Amino acid sequence: MFPDDMPYSKSQYKKCAVIGNGGIIKNSKCGKEIDSADFVFRCNIPPINDKYSADVGTKTDLVTINPSIITERFQKLEKWRRPFFQVLQNYENSSVVLPAFYNTRNTDYLLNVQRFWAVQGVRAKRLSSGLMLVTAALEMCEEVHLYGFWAFPMNPSGIFITHHYYDNVKPRPGFHAMPHEIFNFIHMHTRGIINLHTGSCM
Fold first, then answer.
1. Residue 176 a catalytic site member
2. 128-158: per-residue pLDDT in tens?
3. Which of 21, 167, 169, 184 has the greatest number of CB atoms lying within 10 Å of its CB?
């Protein structure tokens, strides 16, 4: 998945945390638990400042940035370079993957990942960054813990939650198959392949 010159290899890490941006992580107090992982993945440069760190932690070893983030949140960097720079400062010790996963050197791998998840029932125009990071974590880590992954308006206790932990902006429809991804994560959790955290860490 990663270019040969990146310093990651299969099962190099004992415990990894992959952090989704779902509202299910809000008020979870999982920050310390997340930061205790050996390697932490995050998607799309989410906020990890003091307002959110108790829930989501701050440690980040790899963070992705999708092209749509550059286009929509930072107006293609035509006028908004300083805000982009300020956001990146929160990730100064992290590897930043941009654009996320769509490097021609990775094409064969991406096609294999797409085929694998299609067999599992995840058929979408594009796999989500979160699913790609989970795939990478399964290759790199002995233990994979997921936080902030959910695709439904209510948590398992029936309480309404926001779409993201930092806002309630819905994604553009038709790109990802998020419910199918989450159902796969739940199934993998029940089989002991991953650890899906959907509640409080206190």
1. yes
2. 888 889 999 998 999 999 999 998 999 999 9
3. 21
